[in-house]
Amino acid sequence: MRLSFVLSEIFSGLRRNLSMVVSVILVTFVSLSFVGAAGLLQAQVTQMKGYWFDKVQVAVYLCNSTSVSANCPVGADGAATPVSESQRTAVEDALKSDEMKSYVAMYEYESPEEAYKHFQEQFGNSSMADLVKPDQLPASFRIKLVDPEKYQVINERFSTMPGVDQVADQRQYLDKVFQLINVASIVAVIIAAVMIVCAVLLVATTIRLSAFTRRRETGIMRLVGASKSVIQLPFVLEGVIAAAIGAILASGVLWAVLQFVVTDRLAAENPQVAFIDPTEMFWVAPLLILIGVLLAGLSSLLTLRRYLKV
């Protein structure tokens, strides 16, 4: 009897305040979509770091005629002196040394001819391909580190060696990408916070109007001895149901984006990039529903304490 009464009151309240309930669903949907997007963006950053940081290398570029480093002295013709064979051998011997064994997982030498070939493969469809000549690209050692965070050790060891133009950590280019994703996450969180405040206020307004329109019914219930929880429960569940629907819609849209945009399109077109997949929604969706239910429930309870005297 009590359960059927509570259910009838819930559906009655939802029907009477349908427009407000739809508004709560939409605002909750938008706000939790931004919350979920922020979480997924952070998951993408973590995924890319774990994938790319194992693959990035430190490049030790050797002197050529276009170098400007102090390690590359200028000859009589005004051009830098290219690295000599003995200098190149000294760098390679240092990489093989016992001192570097705990830092260097592997390395490979790339000659200027190989560097030019790789450049043409990468920029063959660009006008840049015609502007670069083979002698403008330096020879280099590509080093894979045991721990990518130990770049500074390699930099200190090789940057001052004769014949070395510069030591470059390829992670710095990835860090720029990660920073952009982090900025997008922060923006999503800020928008989500504003929208969540709007959702909370809208839930409170909806519950307040519902309580006002049914004040005669609640008065009769008080007179016949209905408990506080029985009177308040339908109002609370109205807000919770609306917020839960919004959270489910947000989860569905985010899953669709991951499946049809990220997995089916971006991942297929960019197999070299480690994208997150729709399985991430297994932890995002329950979290969004929990956030929506908690916000709606707390907002409803606080509103009822002020406007519904039981």
Automatic annotation (TrEMBL):
Domain of life: Bacteria
Sequence ranges assigned to domain ABC3 transporter permease C-terminal in this UniProt record: 190-309
Keywords: Cell cycle, Cell division, Cell membrane, Membrane, Transmembrane, Transmembrane helix
Cellular-component GO terms for this entry: plasma membrane
Subcellular location: Cell membrane
Alphabetical GO biological process terms: cell division
UniProt KW Cell membrane keyword: yes
Bilayer-spanning residue ranges: 21-43, 183-209, 230-261, 281-304
Mode of membrane association: Multi-pass membrane protein
Domain annotation FtsX extracellular: ranges: 56-167
Membership in a protein family: Belongs to the ABC-4 integral membrane protein family. FtsX subfamily.
PANTHER family: CELL DIVISION PROTEIN FTSX
The protein's assembly and partners: Forms a membrane-associated complex with FtsE.
Chain's role: Part of the ABC transporter FtsEX involved in cellular division.
Protein name: Cell division protein FtsX
Species name: Galactobacter caseinivorans
Phylogenetic classification of the source organism: Bacteria, Bacillati, Actinomycetota, Actinomycetes, Micrococcales
